[in-house]
Amino acid sequence: MKIKKIVSKLLKPLKNHIFHAPQSTIISKYLSSLKKSDIWGLLVLTCTFLLMIDAVYLGFVLKEDYIQFNIERMSSTLGFSFMIASISFLVFKGSFFIYNLYHYFKYKHIASVSNDELPTCTVIVPAYNEGKQVWDTLMSLINSDYPKEKLQLLAIDDGSVDDTWEWMLDAKKQLGDRLEIYQQPKNKGKRHALYRGFNQGNGDIFVTVDSDSIVKSDTLRNLVSPFVTNKKCGAVAGNIRVLNKETSLLPKMLDVSFVLSFEFVRSAESNLNSVLCTPGALAAYRSEAVFACLPEWINQTFMGQLSDIGEDRAMTNMILKQGYSVLFQRNAYAYTNVPEKYSGLYKMFIRWGRSNVRENIEMSKYVFKNFRKGPKTAPRLLFLSQSLKIIMAYPFLLFMLFFVTTHPILFLSSTFLSILILSTFSVIFYANRYKTKESFWAYTYSILYTFGLFWITPYAIVTANKRGWLTRSLPEKK
């Protein structure tokens, strides 16, 4: 029935003119009513589905060739060893998926507590070259349904070279004492801007919000409520959606990816009290937990150099290490801007990849110790899952290159068929939570990641010691 409604909605513009215009003009009028981005998106999705159909067809036609390829691979010691490792990896990931699925269904977000129960809260907004966007962020926060007397709002300009400070001044002029603004003497990085905010804040709970994000009116109270109901809670991750998904195709794809990453993965992790990363776009921390690790966090190094990336994952890691639970609130939404071009996308992923390598090394130092009371199997399994992805990055890259050069058609058909099978879960999940017609971007995103971003993890591993935010530049004029 849902598909029928979507088809009916898409065809509605045609129905209005079907009996009043020659058939030759119907399609042209309909296409002229669409935006160029809509037409481009329709074309890309059409090509995606054609590739999926071809994959199914080729998979059927070439099944004997694929069987023969596997037999040949098993005939050598190296090939047999790799196949055993691959099967073991797939069995683990498959079992881990079922494990996550079980905990996803058990997950329930925590309902908002009353105004009297809400703790004092300091919201910190670090900004660098955000222009008017920081003003929009601050206005969305000040309109939160949170007791005014319990809310402290701090905005910190990290040495911007555009008009970010002017927009902060304008927000201060409108909001008066409800907003405090600070300006770093020079650009020192997001971690230092947050550090200043932590030291200036006086709330029982710290909330960090990226300056390119917009929150819903009930976001803050929903995000903070778990600290009241669970005294062992040290941090809470918010639910991140894409703000600029109507501007180009990449944000549409990333929105589907974010929904799976947050509403499925973090829901399962939350049920295990072990969310591994609280996102910079929206996260909350118990002040005692922050101050307990703040000196270590601001002075964190990797291979002899001060860390200037991955501040959110590092803070989460240090709070987990203290024995606290880290949770996820599905009902605490923030909408954030994401890259619209490939160059911005791969730079963002490289930064995330390097942070992931660093923090997995740090997590390995405590996760198998008695770091908290109660069961510790869950965080250990989560750690192993992330570590295996890193460990297997190079073997799979080498196998892919070998497969491409020796059996290119088999590689393409099996890869597209795998994308179709594995991404269907993302499609179903997103369609169930939001809009069916937008869920199909999961297939396109998987194709993009497989063929255009496969090199990210191997590259991040060998360059994990490199510093730099990579995407901190002036926003493009629109």
Keywords:
Glycosyltransferase family 2 protein; 478 residues; alpha/beta; eight-stranded mixed β-sheet; transferase; disordered C terminus; two-stranded antiparallel ribbon; cell membrane; membrane; Spore Coat Polysaccharide Biosynthesis Protein SpsA, Chain A; transmembrane helix; disordered N terminus; globular
Q: Quickly count the domains.
A: 2
Largest sheet: 8 strands, mixed
Distance between the termini: 40 Å
Classified in CATH, the superfamily of the largest domain is Spore Coat Polysaccharide Biosynthesis Protein SpsA, Chain A
Indicate the CATH class of the largest domain: Alpha Beta
Cα-based radius of gyration, to the nearest Å: 24 Å
Task: Give the averaged pLDDT, no decimals.
Answer: 90
Outline the secondary-structure elements.
Layout: H1 2-15, H2 23-33, H3 36-61, H4 63-74, H5 77-106, E1 121-127, H6 133-142, E2 151-157, H7 164-175, E3 179-183, H8 190-200, E4 205-209, E5 213-215, H9 219-229, E6 233-242, H10 249-271, E7 282-286, H11 287-298, E8 301-302, E9 305-306, H12 311-321, E10 325-336, H13 342-364, H14 377-391, H15 393-406, H16 408-433, H17 436-439, H18 441-452, H19 456-462
Parallel strand pairs: 1-2, 1-4, 2-3, 6-10
Antiparallel strand pairs: 4-7, 5-10, 6-7, 8-9
